[in-house]
Amino acid sequence: MIEEKSIIKVGMADLNVTSNPNSIRTTGLGSCVGLTLYDPHLKLAGMAHVMLPSSDIAREGQLNIAKYADTALPELFERMLKLGAERRRLIAKMAGGAQMFAFAGSGDTMRIGPRNVESCKEMLVDLGIPLIAEDTGGNYGRTIELDCETGVLNIRSVQKGVKEL
Amino acid sequence: MENLRNLEDFKLDVLKEVGNIGSGNAATALSRLLNKPIDMGVPKVQMLPFEEIADKVGGDEQLVVAVFFRVEGEAPGNLFFILQPQAAKSLLSRLANIPSDDEDSFNEMEHSALSEIGNILAGSYLSSLADFTRLSMYPTVPALALDMAGAILSYGLLQFGQMGDAALLIDTSFLEGQNQIEGQFFLIPDPESFGKIFRSLGVPMNDD
């Protein structure tokens, strides 16, 4: 039987996991960060589309844990483990965290991209997962797709074309 | 967020009227600039999930030209003037006499002209809202981006991101001639701004 390859979509403030032969994808990352975890042995991949650095600032009634770096990463990690992934095998890659508008108003909002990146890195250190590649910063949007077969993260942008990590 | 979700139809109508007045003024400014009639769609006021906002301009990955303004003053928010690249090129050639056939890039001169056009339109949009609500609202200097709609618009959602997964959007499109969409205005008032807008218009609020 030939297995159908499908692309699992991850929306904004969303996360998901999938396995070979699928790939996992999120579109239109601006200041958001697309973080991926990969277990090369099981060819298992997880992806989170993180919008904000910390859930401390959350004022929502029911917390969407996929939205904040400090809650999304532990959740993604747990879901990988449930599928059989092992911590010592996991590797992380990430992209996004741009500053879409050079000036754009005041203080904190403007730096949200870099803060998302910093927060994701801190969480990875806490979880003990190495970040082996990243394409972050700049002032442009990105669409990313991780192939479970190869573990390659494909990054597309309007300004910079295609890149593989 | 709860009271945003429960915005009664009446309040949505008030916001629609607010959008109508603002975009009516901007449409007038645009048709003066182009010296030809510009029609305006009836503004849509919707509480939309983040996922669906970029669909209003063709999807997350749709290449768009966006002029972004942070609105400051008593009712802060985010304002985007969004154009498809070919519409931006056509605006440039007709308004600023800058002809170009390369749709995928904009030079410095084109950037500057588009920002200025955006500035004029945003200024007329906001000043009529300010007159109508008697709240001070003024745009910051424009910032321009040519990029994926999802990447651009998500920036306008950050204030909402702390509260939920949907944002209130006042969306108006401009039409010139045969249903060709010339541009769209997106006003995303900060969550805190609604109460101020409603109060200034004499709409009773639950929390008063």
TrEMBL record, chain A:
Catalysed reaction, written as an equation: L-glutaminyl-[protein] + H2O = L-glutamyl-[protein] + NH4(+)
Organism, as annotated: Paenibacillus kribbensis
Molecular functions (GO terms): protein-glutamine glutaminase activity
Keyword Magnesium among record annotations: no
Family: Belongs to the CheD family.
EC code: 3.5.1.44
Gene from which the chain derives: cheD
Root EC class: hydrolase
Taxonomic lineage: Bacteria, Bacillati, Bacillota, Bacilli, Bacillales
Entry keyword annotation includes Hydrolase: yes
Keywords: Chemotaxis, Hydrolase
Full protein name: Probable chemoreceptor glutamine deamidase CheD
Job of this protein: Probably deamidates glutamine residues to glutamate on methyl-accepting chemotaxis receptors (MCPs), playing an important role in chemotaxis.
GO BP terms: chemotaxis
Superkingdom of origin organism: Bacteria
From TrEMBL, chain B:
GO BP field: chemotaxis
The keyword Hydrolase is assigned to this record: yes
InterPro entries assigned: CheC, CheC-like_sf, CheZ_family_phosphatases
Entry keyword set: Chemotaxis, Hydrolase
Domain of life: Bacteria
Gene Ontology MF: a single term: hydrolase activity
Residues in CheC-like protein domain copies: 12-45, 109-144
PANTHER family: PROTEIN PHOSPHATASE CHEZ
Protein name: CheY-P-specific phosphatase CheC
Taxonomic lineage from the root: Bacteria, Bacillati, Bacillota, Bacilli, Bacillales
